[in-house]
Give the backbone structure.
Amino acid sequence: MGMMTRCPWAERSPEETSYHDEEWGTPVHDDRLLFEFLVLEGAQAGLAWVTILRKREAYRVAFDGFYPEKVACFDEHRLASLLGNPGIVRNRLKLQSAIHNARAYLAVQQAFGSFDAYLWQFVEGIAIQNHWTTAAECPVSTPVSDRLSKDLRQRGFSFVGSVICYSYMQAVGLVNDHLQGCFRHAALTAR
């Protein structure tokens, strides 16, 4: 069996390879998983994504499975516990943001019926299919991520700048940024 061609970043570590092959760019419509990625993308700001991948299981435990209704109830005592957890990124602003964002997330769910319905309206319900041949072509933000960022901030979210929003869009499949030569590009384009 021949070697599979992947996006170059996916070859840096086993965690990144697995994430690339199994998750990145796959359209997500599950509200709990959409919240998980929103928290993780905010936690990643300024760090390498592999750092977050390696801490993902600890995050799942620390954040009660990423159920937004549970995280929204976290208080100062729970925040202090998170700040003492060596398995996650112990940045007070990022942790406070995750708790605050859970509350804003619930408000979006209430207003739109689901976060999924809210989020996918930004791409009219259909993943954007890009056709990059090199990683250098892939943008770090777009007018769509700009609009998403602005709207999220107006709804009270934090750690949702346009670059974070674009990474989020890539992660949850609103955009297919696998390179054309990558085996995942064709699989996701066919969806």
Notes: Residues 78 and 136 are 41 Å apart (CA to CA). The mean pLDDT is 96. The beta strands are 128-129, 175-176.
